[in-house]
Design brief:
single chain; 436 residues; alpha/beta; Aminopeptidase; Glucose Oxidase, domain 1; 2 domains; 14-stranded mixed sheet; 34% helix; globular; binds zinc ion
Length: 436
Amino acid sequence: METLFDGKKAFKHIEKLAVEIGARPGGSPEDKQAADYIKGYFESLGLKTWTQEFTIKTGHTTHQSLDVIKPYKKSITCEGLSLIGQTGPEGIEGELVYIETTDEEYLTPEITGKIVVTNGVQRKNLDLIQKMKPKGFILIERHPRVLPKHFWGQFPKNKDYGNYPSVRISFEDGLSLLKDGATHVKIVVQSERYEKQTQNVVAELKGTLKPEEIVVVGGHYDTVPDVRGASDNAGGTSIAMELARVFKEKGSKRTLRFVAWGSEEMGLDGSNLYAKKLKEADKEAKEKDKEANTELDNTKLCVNLDVHGALLGTNNVYVIGESILTHSVKLLSKESGIVFDVKEDVYSSDGTPFSAVGIPSVSFSRDSGINIMMHSVEDIIEYLSPDALERQGRFVETWMTRYISEGSVFPFPHTVPEALMKKIEDYYARWKEPLP
Ligand SMILES: [Zn+2]
């Protein structure tokens, strides 16, 4: 089958997004600049293009520091989790206590009123942590040789996460804190918080035979603060943009909707919004007429592209859907001689909200050693290549051509198996997010 996907063309989008524009956290001027670039590109292809705007509660760090004050003095480079907890300009001082993980066994009154240092933080037992009232958190990176990551959250969710001033530090700095016997530290984390507008950018290629059947193909274009996000996810966005060009040229029997998702890093905001709107419209239509055929019924599949372009790496696919969908990717992998590790599982990205409202999703991604630097300033274009994009892009193009754009009948059932739906519910519960 002839393929048109051009890795060099896709790579140019990464250069624009991750080098020229750079960090583009949701709601920032760079986020808008990136959205305008993507919108302009879709329009230049002659596709009907629009944006879906929404508000996020966000902010940025203004001051952050970590100092050992007893029994020796030393400043340590850190990244403040500005939207989780904050301090005044004077900071907080306290006694350090090290725990291996945030498993229940370690969450004892021992941590009450102290600054907890750990390299095993998990998204569980948040309630128990709250109950024990620690004074602050120092999160040590899990892997050595990577810089502290730039995570954030949404400050209205403080009540769930706790309002502890928290900083991330490197594995090496964490190790020396313990080895040198630091007992008391001072933490400063100050931030500004505000509401900002951001957007999804949507472009539509109308189907020639079954225009009412829609397949959504997308990747998030936002980043965490101060991080260029070359692999995560200028890479996936670039593949979605190049696929838009390819299918505009090839045509499609079904409607293809190419979407650059906004504010994924804040908690899948753009895709949650899209899925929620589908669900609300569906409910409203079916209250009037239970036989109504809605856009939710007609949105057949979501193809998601998140984390792409690493030259050294391997290919991954996460499927949330029936096994025929999984087999279709496995078969093409065997046939094409391009290895994909195909799993039926939840991938923490923009396909999941679709599956939460009953639409199957397939997430393509690139696994690589560089993924340990994801969400740090080291996620840069130097590790990526047009060739890696082209291999992955041509595979997705072939798979889409076969089953989506050219097939006479859409082959994949519009259902999500119960066991996977349970995993989606657990995923949302872990993040303390309502289902869309
Ligand atoms: Zn991502």
